[in-house]
Amino acid sequence: MLLLYIVTVVLDMGYEYFIINRFGYESVLYEIPCSLRIFKGLLFLYITLYLIESKWRDKLKYLLYPFCMIVLFHTFALSIKLFGYKEADSLLHLYKTCFFNFYIYYWTGSLSVCIFLLYVFQNRTKNPFAKKFRLFLSFVLLSALAFWGSFTLGLDVLLFQKIYSLLFLVQFAWILYVYILTYQEQLKKLAAAIAEEITVKEKYQYKDLSKINFEDIKHSISEFYSNSRVYLDEGFTLEQLSQYLSVSKTDLTITFSQYLSSNFHEYTNRNRVLQFRRMLEEEPDANVTDLAYQCGFKSKSTFYKYFKKEFNCLPSEYAF
């Protein structure tokens, strides 16, 4: 999403550069920046709802339709302007009157909502970069308000616009910084997973496995997933399963690996998919995404991955 934001900003700057060189600063087109920039507010809102793990983020796709209509209208008006049709000025004036004059309220409103949500739900946000993103949005909001204020007060907008463009470099540098931190975080998680696996293997070496009844543990696991719904919580962990069954994590890991040909995450997500199928059979008209979240999946991509792995098709293709 942040990459899409960069692409949107770059296209917007390219548009303005083209208009200045083709029509000059006095053109009405220069007063109407690229309509693609309206997607910036939508992108930031999606990222915000992703960080606070909101189920409503996928509903934002319905906003694409009216936004695309605005972009198509602007593109059509620009095209006929380039071909020299007189009707273009009327269409551009209509576009400016009906939409662009309200853009600043939409843009600052989107940023304000994102900052507010990140502040209110900061205790429920597990992502370590949520606070940094909130600060980033605050920086963007202050930049937009400063530019709008200079325009309203009649200050040297061209000078400030150059400064405003340079501020985008700061935004790009921040996004690069986040990607570097994210990559480092992924490396840490990978290292922790490898270390845990090595620890478990070391425990195997010094444990008399012949004294453990793995068939009983296997039966307990199956009974738990059949009779309990605790695993539908998206935060369900191996440690919680260990506490419910009163079986050590090491013994559970061995059972999953050697007696169930799986691991904890795969086995849990497989049962979530099966539960999803049962729920959808009871409510055929239910929203697939909502049911997937109810079954404990944190994202649609994870859900589709395990659904296709289990049934070799997508939910929309599955014959009940």
Distance between the termini: 35 Å
What portion of residues belong to β-strands?
Answer: under 5%
Count of helical regions: 13
Secondary-structure element order, N to C: HHHHHHHHHHHHH
Shape: elongated
Radius of gyration: 27 Å
Q: Indicate the low-confidence ranges by residue numbers.
A: none
Please provide the count of β strands.
0
Share of helical residues: over 70%
Classification by helices and strands? mainly alpha
How can the largest sheet be summarized?
A: none
Estimate the mean pLDDT confidence: 78
Structure explained in plain terms:
There is one protein chain. With 320 residues, the chain is an all-alpha fold. The protein is 71% helix and 0% strand. The longest helix has 49 residues, at 157-205.
Write the layout of secondary structure elements.
Blueprint: H1 2-23, H2 39-51, H3 64-82, H4 87-98, H5 103-120, H6 130-152, H7 157-205, H8 214-227, H9 238-245, H10 249-259, H11 264-282, H12 288-294, H13 300-311
Gist?
This protein is mainly alpha-helical and 320 residues long. Helix content is 71%, strand content 0%.
Characteristics:
elongated; 13 helices; 320 residues; 71% helix; mainly alpha
